[in-house]
Each structure stands twice: as structure tokens, then as C-alpha cells.
């Protein structure tokens, strides 16, 4: 595959249950974020994660870790940041793990 992944960053990102939940919820945004006002094609607005009971700063920190590991991408529009899963990186990581284990 063409993407270069950082296994250590990905494993570190996936080590926290909140980040795994965020990534899982992003897989089916229409199910988990039905009240978002903006089109989900843009991604999920960071503010939508407040429903999990965490502060905005904690949510931002978790999303930054996922972004640093390239598991999510971020698109900024005005004051909003929209996040989507990076399926190419996720697939490459899963393929690498399956091959090496």
C-alpha cells in the first residue's frame, strides 16, 4: 500500500478505550451522530463528542492523538473541525497486523 504508517503511534492511539470508541463511532456517523446539523459527508464535528461526558479540551486531546496516528483526518471549516476515519491507514494497519501476528 502507498501510505506509510507509524505502528507505534497507531498502537498508542488505540491503547485508550475512549479513542477506540471515538474511532468506532466515526465508522457509522449516521447512527452515532444523528443530531449533527452539518452534512456528515464533511465528517463529524468535534463538538458532537461532548455527548460522551468529556470536556471539550479532553475530546480535542483524544482527537489530536488519533490525528497524529493518521487514523482520522480533520477538515476545518470556519470555527468547526470535522473528523473522518482514515480508512486507508486503518486498512493498512490491519493488514500489517494480520501479516505479522
Automatic annotation (TrEMBL):
SMART domains: HTH_ARSR (SM00418). It comes from Aquirhabdus parva. Keywords: DNA-binding, Transcription, Transcription regulation. The keyword Transcription regulation applies. PANTHER family: TRANSCRIPTIONAL REGULATOR, ARSR FAMILY (PTHR33154), TRANSCRIPTIONAL REPRESSOR SDPR (PTHR33154:SF33). SUPFAM superfamilies: Winged helix' DNA-binding domain. Gene3D superfamilies: Winged helix-like DNA-binding domain superfamily/Winged helix DNA-binding domain. InterPro entries: ArsR-like_HTH, HTH_ArsR_DNA-bd_dom, HTH_MetalResp_TranReg, WH-like_DNA-bd_sf, WH_DNA-bd_sf. Transmembrane segments: none annotated. Residues 1-101 form the HTH arsR-type domain. This is Transcriptional regulator. GO terms for molecular function: DNA binding; DNA-binding transcription factor activity.
